[in-house]
Protein backbone atom coordinates (compact mmCIF):
# COMPACT_ATOMS: atom_id res chain seq x y z
CA UNK A 1 0.00 0.00 0.00
CA UNK A 2 1.20 3.51 -0.76
CA UNK A 3 1.72 5.92 2.09
CA UNK A 4 -1.08 8.33 2.89
CA UNK A 5 -0.70 12.09 2.52
CA UNK A 6 -1.68 14.87 4.88
CA UNK A 7 -5.04 16.44 3.99
CA UNK A 8 -5.18 19.85 2.35
CA UNK A 9 -7.19 22.61 4.00
CA UNK A 10 -10.28 21.83 1.88
CA UNK A 11 -9.99 18.11 2.66
CA UNK A 12 -9.48 18.83 6.37
CA UNK A 13 -12.69 20.88 6.44
CA UNK A 14 -14.52 18.05 4.68
CA UNK A 15 -13.21 15.48 7.19
CA UNK A 16 -14.21 17.74 10.11
CA UNK A 17 -17.74 18.07 8.70
CA UNK A 18 -18.18 14.30 9.21
CA UNK A 19 -17.24 14.57 12.91
CA UNK A 20 -13.68 13.28 12.55
CA UNK A 21 -10.44 14.93 13.65
CA UNK A 22 -8.45 15.75 10.53
CA UNK A 23 -5.17 15.43 12.49
CA UNK A 24 -5.76 11.67 12.85
CA UNK A 25 -6.51 10.86 9.20
CA UNK A 26 -4.38 10.53 6.06
CA UNK A 27 -5.59 10.76 2.46
CA UNK A 28 -5.14 7.45 0.65
CA UNK A 29 -7.10 8.19 -2.52
CA UNK A 30 -8.73 11.41 -3.72
CA UNK A 31 -11.45 10.66 -6.27
CA UNK A 32 -13.87 13.23 -7.75
CA UNK A 33 -16.87 11.80 -5.86
CA UNK A 34 -15.26 10.28 -2.73
CA UNK A 35 -12.27 10.56 -0.43
CA UNK A 36 -10.57 7.43 0.90
CA UNK A 37 -8.94 8.07 4.28
CA UNK A 38 -6.95 5.91 6.71
CA UNK A 39 -6.42 6.44 10.43
CA UNK A 40 -2.82 7.30 11.35
CA UNK A 41 -2.57 4.92 14.32
CA UNK A 42 -5.03 2.07 13.79
CA UNK A 43 -4.96 1.89 10.00
CA UNK A 44 -8.74 1.65 9.77
CA UNK A 45 -10.13 3.02 6.52
CA UNK A 46 -13.22 5.08 5.68
CA UNK A 47 -14.78 6.48 2.53
CA UNK A 48 -16.13 10.02 2.77
CA UNK A 49 -18.39 11.43 0.05
CA UNK A 50 -16.62 14.35 -1.66
CA UNK A 51 -19.09 17.15 -2.39
Query: Which of globular, elongated, flat, extended, rod-shaped describes the shape?
Result: globular
| Number of DSSP helical runs | 1
**Main sheet characteristics:** 3 strands, antiparallel
Instruction: State the end-to-end distance.
Output: 26 Å
Tell me the strand order in the biggest sheet. Answer: 1-2-3
Structure report:
By secondary structure, the chain is α+β, with helices and mostly antiparallel strands. The protein has one domain (9-49). The chain has one helix at residues 9-17; strands at 25-30, 34-39, 45-49. The chain starts with 8 loop residues before the first helix and ends with a strand. β1 and β2 form a beta hairpin. It has a three-stranded antiparallel sheet, with helices on one face. It contains one helix and three strands; from the N terminus they run αβββ. Helices cover 18% and strands 33% of the residues. The longest helix has 9 residues, at 9-17.
Amino acid sequence: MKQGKRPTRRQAILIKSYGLKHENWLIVKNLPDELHIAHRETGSKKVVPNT
